[in-house]
Amino acid sequence: MRIFSGGGEIQIPAALVASVEVLPDPPSAAPQPENPLPAPGRAAPAPVQRDARKLIDEAAAKHGLPAAFLHSVAQAESAYQIHALSPKGAIGVMQLMPATAASLGVDPHDPAQNIDAGARHLADLLVQYNGSSAKALAAYNAGAGAVARYGGVPPYPETRNYVQTIINNFRRSSPPNSAK
Question: What does the pLDDT look like over 10-23, one tens digit per residue?
Fold first, then answer.
């Protein structure tokens, strides 16, 4: 089997391949303007809201999620980093994959859109899995296909740890009667 990449190729025996997963190319960094200062006599544009925690609180309220739950996801995904980029190409605070962001019609590099879309996606997954936080989080992390394939949280150590970490953090940060 030959695997071609932008910089070359590698050959391995086909018998060693358990599965093939094609990942989208990571987005390239957007070019920065040469002179970001406003022209003389013009006011600087209003700063973009960069307070991820406030945006998470707003998105949680808008989509009917406990804020502590959404904060637990944001902490696990990116530690609230707006410019985070995972090795698999997930972008921003809520670590949206480019295909997920496109399906939700958002720019994953825009903090407000990223966080709102992540909250909307998570809320939709909770509805899809009848309120099962574990299944919704597993689908958010590993994809709905993996959850369907295994009939629940897939046996991937990364996904199992992710689900448990978020649920534990949510329980620790929530008042006793706010857990669902």
Answer: 555 666 666 666 55
